[in-house]
Write a sequence for this structure.
C-alpha cells in the first residue's frame, strides 16, 4: 500500500524584497515576487526524499489562497509532487490561523487517508508557526515541530526526528499518522526538473471552495468566524538618523567613535 | 468581508489600492473592489480621502460570557528545572497588564514539570502574585501532548482572561495546540501588549505612525491589544480577540524587561493535580542533547558585534569575533550572512532570528533590511559601518561610518583600550 504524504504549502511575497515608501509610509509591492514559502519547500523536499527511497509514495500538496497560488502549486508538481489541491473561496478570505487550520484540516480530510502531514514551520509573511500545530490538533494527530532530521523505519510507521531547540535538540520517536513541521536545516530543496515543468503545466489542479470542504463560513472559516481580528495596523517608525563620523583616515575615525561612545558613558 | 466600499463615494483614485499591504483591492473601472485577500487590516480606511471605505463588522455578536474569565496567566517555561529568562520577563509584563485591568486581577505563574515547586519563589520575586503548580513524573520533560492536556484542563477549570507564553521552540509548539483545543485566538510573537486604550495610545504616539485620533483614551475597553510585526517587520499589526477567552499570545524573548528582583516577595502556591496518563503522550523522547556549540546569548549581551553580507565571505567573521572579544561583546549576524552559510543561525538577529537590545550594537557590513532592523532597532546605541552611504542601516544608527570595515574595525580594536586617554584629551582642563 502506498505511503501517503500531504504537504501543506503557502505562496508568499518575498518579504526580503519589500520596501517602505519613505513618503507614504506604505509597503511598496511593485515587482515583489511571489514565491513558495521557504520552510514549505523543505517540507516538500523531505517528502520527495521519502519518495526517492520508497517509490510507492504518493505526495499531495495542498494550499489555501487566491487563484494565483496555483502557480506555486505547479512549482511543487514540477519538483516532483504527484497531486496538488487549491482551497480557494471568497468565504475563506480574512481567515486567521484558527480559521485557516479549519479549512486546511477539512481539505486534508477530504483528500482522505494519509500517513504523514508535512508543513513548513512558518510562513515568511505571517511568521506565526501556528497553522501546522492547529491543523494537527483539529485532525487529532500528534506533532513534532522544528524538525531538522528525519528518518523512517521500513515498517513505514515509525518515524524518528530531531527537533531543534534553542540550545540543542531532542530526538523524538513518533508513529504515523502525524504532523511534522520543517525548518531550513532539514535539507536543501531540489530544483524543478524540465520534465516536471512540462508535465506540471498540463496537470489539472482542482479548486475546492468552502462548500466542497464542508466548512461553515459563519462559524468555521473566513473573517467573521476568526477569533482574532486586526485592531489597527501601521508601519514602524525608523529611529531618527544619528551622527556620521568622518575623518582623514581609519585611525582618526576609530578614535572619534571611541570618544563619542565614552562621552555617552556607553563604555 | 467586513471592510466595504461605498460605491457612491468612491472616485477611483486608487490611493487605497496603493496602500493595501495584501493586494486585496482591485479596480473595476472607477470603483475599488475588495477581493478575497482582505484581512480587514483597515489600512485602506485611513488612506481613503473620501470616506468611501468603512468597516462594516457587526459589533460583538454572539459574545460568550467573557466576565467569567479573570486574571493573567504566564506559562513559566522551565527546562531541566531551570526557568527560562523569558518566563521571568513575562511575569513582569503580566503584572503590568493585571494592574491595568484593575485591582483584584492577579498575575499567576503556571509551572508545569516534576519536582519544580522551588521555582515558584523565583516567580514571586519577579512579580507573580501566585503560582499554579502542575507536577507529574510524566511532565518532567516537555511533550506537546502532555503539556497541552494539563494546561488546557487547568485553563478550563480556572478560566484566566489572558494566557501568555514565551515565543520559544516550546512555547510556539504548545500555544497553538492549546488555543486550537480551546477554540480561542492566539497571536504569535508579540512585541507589545496593552490592555487600556490610553496605554495603547501612549505607545502608538511615541513609537508608530498610527493616527490615534479615533481612539478614545477613556474607553472602558480592556481587551488585550497584541502588537506584532508581520511581513518580516515591514508592517506592524495590533490584534484583538474580542469574542473568545482566554486571549492568548506568545511574546518574543528579550522584548519585555524583567522587574527588579524583590527577595522579600511571597505568594500563594495553588497545587493542581494534573490528570495525565502515559497513553496521553504519543511521542517518545529518546534523547535531549545540549548543543556542544557555544550558546550564543544575544539577548543578555551588553555589546553585540554583528556582521552581514558586506563582510564578503565567511572569513570576515574572524575579524568580527576578534572585535567582539576585544569589546566584551558577542557575535551577531544578519540573515544574509546566515543564508550564505557563513555563520550559524543561532547568531542571527532580526525578525526571524533573535530580538536584541544591547547597550551598543555594532552593525558591520549590514545594509539594514527591515527584517533585521525589526530585531535590533531598540538597542541603546547603534553604530553602523558600511561602504554604501545610502544603506538603510544609517537611518537608525546613532553613529554612522561610511568606509571599509576591514580598515576601520582593526583600528577600533587597536584603540579600544585607550578610550579613557582619548576621551580625556578632548576635555578642556579647567582646574588649573
Amino acid at each position: 500500500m502506498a505511503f501517503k504524504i500531504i504537504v501543506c504549502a503557502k505562496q508568499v511575497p518575498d518579504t526580503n524584497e519589500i520596501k517602505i515608501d519613505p513618503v507614504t509610509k506604505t509597503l511598496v509591492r511593485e515587482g515583489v515576487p511571489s514565491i513558495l514559502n521557504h520552510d514549505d519547500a523543505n517540507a516538500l523536499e523531505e517528502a520527495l526524499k521519502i519518495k526517492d527511497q520508497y517509490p510507492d509514495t504518493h505526495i499531495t500538496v495542498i494550499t489555501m489562497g487566491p487563484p494565483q497560488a496555483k502557480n506555486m502549486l505547479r512549482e511543487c508538481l514540477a519538483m516532483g509532487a504527484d497531486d496538488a489541491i487549491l482551497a480557494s473561496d471568497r468565504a475563506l478570505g480574512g481567515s486567521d490561523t484558527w480559521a485557516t487550520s479549519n479549512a486546511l484540516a477539512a481539505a486534508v480530510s477530504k483528500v482522505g487517508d494519509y500517513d504523514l502531514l508535512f508543513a513548513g514551520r512558518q510562513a515568511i509573511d505571517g511568521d506565526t508557526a501556528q497553522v501546522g500545530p492547529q491543523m494537527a490538533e483539529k485532525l487529532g494527530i500528534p506533532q513534532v515541530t522544528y524538525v531538522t532530521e528525519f528518518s523512517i523505519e521500513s515498517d513505514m510507521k515509525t518515524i524518528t526526528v530531531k527537533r531543534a531547540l534553542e540550545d540543542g535538540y531532542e530526538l523524538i520517536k513518533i508513529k504515523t499518522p502525524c504532523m511534522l513541521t520543517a525548518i531550513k536545516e532539514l535539507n536543501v530543496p531540489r530544483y524543478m526538473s524540465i520534465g516536471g515543468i512540462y508535465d506540471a503545466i498540463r496537470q489539472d489542479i482542482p479548486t475546492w471552495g468552502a462548500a466542497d470542504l464542508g466548512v461553515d463560513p459563519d462559524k468555521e472559516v473566513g473573517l467573521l468566524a476568526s477569533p482574532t481580528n486586526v485592531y489597527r495596523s501601521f508601519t514602524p517608525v525608523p529611529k531618527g538618523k544619528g551622527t556620521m563620523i568622518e575623518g582623514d583616515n581609519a585611525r582618526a575615525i576609530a578614535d572619534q567613535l571611541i570618544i563619542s561612545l565614552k562621552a555617552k558613558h556607553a563604555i | 468581508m467586513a471592510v466595504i466600499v461605498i460605491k457612491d463615494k468612491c472616485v477611483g483614485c486608487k490611493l487605497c489600492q496603493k496602500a493595501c499591504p495584501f493586494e486585496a483591492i482591485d479596480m473595476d473601472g472607477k470603483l475599488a473592489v475588495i477581493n478575497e485577500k482582505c484581512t480587514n487590516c483597515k489600512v485602506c480606511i485611513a488612506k481613503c480621502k473620501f470616506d468611501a471605505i468603512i468597516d462594516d463588522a457587526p459589533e460583538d455578536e454572539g459574545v460568550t460570557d467573557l466576565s467569567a474569565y479573570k486574571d493573567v496567566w504566564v506559562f513559566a517555561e522551565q527546562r531541566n528545572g531551570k526557568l527560562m529568562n523569558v518566563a521571568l520577563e513575562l511575569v513582569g509584563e503580566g503584572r503590568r497588564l493585571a494592574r491595568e485591568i484593575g485591582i483584584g486581577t492577579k498575575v499567576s505563574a503556571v509551572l508545569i514539570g516534576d519536582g519544580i515547586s522551588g521555582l515558584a519563589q523565583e516567580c514571586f520575586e519577579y512579580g507573580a502574585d501566585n503560582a499554579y503548580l502542575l507536577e507529574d513524573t510524566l511532565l518532567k520533560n516537555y511533550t506537546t501532548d502532555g503539556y497541552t492536556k494539563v494546561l488546557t484542563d487547568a485553563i478550563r477549570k480556572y478560566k484566566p482572561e489572558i494566557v501568555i507564553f514565551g515565543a520559544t521552540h516550546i512555547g510556539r509548539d504548545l500555544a497553538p495546540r492549546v488555543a486550537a483545543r480551546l477554540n480561542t485566538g492566539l497571536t504569535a510573537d508579540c512585541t507589545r501588549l496593552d490592555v487600556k486604550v490610553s496605554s495603547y495610545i501612549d505607545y502608538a504616539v511615541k513609537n508608530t505612525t498610527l493616527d490615534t485620533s479615533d481612539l478614545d483614551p477613556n474607553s472602558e475597553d480592556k481587551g488585550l491589544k497584541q502588537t506584532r510585526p508581520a511581513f518580516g517587520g515591514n508592517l506592524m499589526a495590533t490584534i484583538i480577540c474580542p469574542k473568545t477567552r482566554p486571549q492568548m499570545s506568545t511574546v518574543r524573548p528579550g522584548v519585555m524587561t524583567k522587574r527588579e528582583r524583590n527577595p522579600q516577595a511571597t505568594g500563594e502556591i495553588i497545587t493542581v493535580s494534573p490528570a495525565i496518563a502515559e497513553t496521553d503522550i504519543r511521542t517518545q523522547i529518546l534523547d535531549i542533547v545540549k548543543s556542544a556549540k557555544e550558546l550564543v546569548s544575544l539577548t543578555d549581551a551588553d555589546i553585540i558585534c554583528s556582521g552581514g553580507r558586506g563582510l564578503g565571505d565567511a572569513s570576515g567573521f574572524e575579524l568580527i569575533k576578534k572585535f567582539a572579544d576585544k569589546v566584551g561583546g558577542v557575535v551577531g549576524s544578519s540573515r544574509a550572512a546566515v543564508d550564505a552559510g557563513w555563520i550559524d543561525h543561532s547568531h542571527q538577529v532580526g525578525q526571524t532570528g533573535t530580538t536584541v537590545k544591547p547597550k551598543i550594537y555594532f552593525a558591520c557590513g549590514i545594509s539594514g533590511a527591515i527584517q533585521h532592523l525589526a530585531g535590533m532597532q531598540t538597542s541603546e546605541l547603534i553604530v553602523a559601518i558600511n561602504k554604501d552611504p545610502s544603506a538603510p542601516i544609517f537611518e537608525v544608527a546613532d553613529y554612522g561610518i561610511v568606509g571599509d570595515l576591514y580598515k576601520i574595525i582593526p583600528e577600533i580594536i587597536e584603540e579600544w583600550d585607550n578610550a579613557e586617554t582619548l576621551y580625556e584629551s578632548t576635555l578642556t582642563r579647567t582646574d588649573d
In short: The mean pLDDT of chain A is 92. Residues 87 and 208 of chain A are 5 Å apart (CA to CA). Chain A touches chain B through 95 residues (CB under 8 Å). The radius of gyration of chain A is 23 Å.
